Amino acid sequence: MTVQDTGSVEDLAARLRPGFTLGVATAAFQIEGSLTADGRGPAGWDAFAEKPGTIVDGGSPAIACDHYNRADEDIALMQELGVDSYRFSLSWPRIQPEGKGAVNPRGLEFYDRLIDKLLAAGISPMVTVYHWDTPLPLEHAGGWLNRETAHRFAEYSAIVAERYGDRVDSWVTVNEPVSVTLQGYALGAHSPGNQLLFDCLPAAHHQLLGHGLAVQALRAAGVSGQIGISNMHSPVRPASNKLSDRLMSDALDMILNRIYADAILLGEYPKPPLALSPLFRSLGPVQDDDLKTISQPLDFYGLNYYYPLKVASGSGPAEIPTGAAQEMVNVPFHLAVYDEYETTGFGWPEAPDQLTTLLQEMQQRYGEALPPIYITEGGASFPEPDHVTSPLQDTNRITYLAEHLGHALTATGPGGDAEGIDLRGYYVWTLMDNFEWAAGYSQRFGLVHVDFDTLERTPKESFYWLRSLERARRREQQL
């Protein structure tokens, strides 16, 4: 598929329902840079990235895409792209450097300007309150293992709700609590670098509690926008029909999917099979009313989907890259290969049909408790050059996006396998190549190529493909 393949674009555009949101997503720590500018305090990720060996290419987030100084240029790119919405995150340590107490006026003003310029450009802001950049003083106090962090997050949420609540159309409280829990606290591949394995689960509970308290803070401030949360979800399957594989598949499904969605949507944690109970002991009894706080009704639920997982019992390194392959030798299962799928630059299986499976599972598990869905992240990295002089021919990314969006629309459309789901939008990860956490600058997910030596932005062919889809959708809706 290419940009010139207008028939495919027109067909896909015709299937986009009125009001369906097409957007792009980023995260503050990955693009902003200026880590020491304007009174911003350090994040746990700043300290983690400075440790030798934590970032695969030795890259530093200090400059990243320099979005802090180039926001106007990036908004102009989005305006040219024609997207309905931009999902971005606020930097907690830029707004509240200590993670509690005094705010930083210059940090607040940066996002004031960003939101106002987005609105002037006709782009709807979707704000993520927390996308992994815990202020370092809170990290030193235990981070998300410390219940107090949830209350500090509520205080910070109240600050940003009061400041921006009249202009933000959608709020995501927490992005991917599962990734923070597993990569940061269980396996140590991400900040803060803890390797607690299954004893990481208090970090999951406290993030969920922080989410619930943030929902209360946003609503108490009277924000005008809709409120939700985003989590990464994956279909999980056993590698064989052996009991041990099925049990380990159930364990990963719980720790990856159900702990979060069950608590948020059903107000309860899933009960593990008796044989798995010892693995989940650290989740333990929770305080009275915690689950009531966590499970307040939401306006939407955000799904971040990248790949399915196949689980085999027994320890060993993951057979697909997870960012923590070596650390996986310490858990009682490993991830097996999906031979039937091509893979991305990260080695993740390209499995758009499994997005249908995921949506179907969400519908079956949560039924009427499931609010409208946004796919708040979807995209792929592929091997690409550091320097370009013209639009990169990333047809693999175009195919990836077209197929995933197409499967999502089919699954949730009339007669689809997840027809009962109210799918409201799809956000592409990501607008531009960026600092990809522990992978540094080695993985490029962007619609826009960034030369990290010159910081020059060059739209890729996928950028122009999405622009053509946006234009075709508008033509279709004018008929």
UniProtKB/TrEMBL annotation:
Cellular component aspect of the GO annotation: cytosol
InterPro entries xref list: GH, Glyco_hydro_1, Glyco_hydro_1_beta-glucosidase
Bilayer-spanning residue ranges: none
Top-level lineage group: Bacteria
Keyword flag Hydrolase: yes
Entries under Gene3D superfamilies matching the protein: Glycosidases
Annotated signal peptide: none
GO biological-process terms attached to the record: cellulose catabolic process
Gene Ontology MF annotations: beta-glucosidase activity
EC number, UniProt record: 3.2.1.21
Keywords: Carbohydrate metabolism, Cellulose degradation, Glycosidase, Hydrolase, Polysaccharide degradation
Active-site residues annotated for this sequence: 176 (proton donor), 377 (nucleophile)
Catalytic activities: Hydrolysis of terminal, non-reducing beta-D-glucosyl residues with release of beta-D-glucose
Entry binding sites for substrate: 30, 131, 175, 306, 429, 436-437
The family this protein is said to belong to: Belongs to the glycosyl hydrolase 1 family.
Protein name: Beta-glucosidase
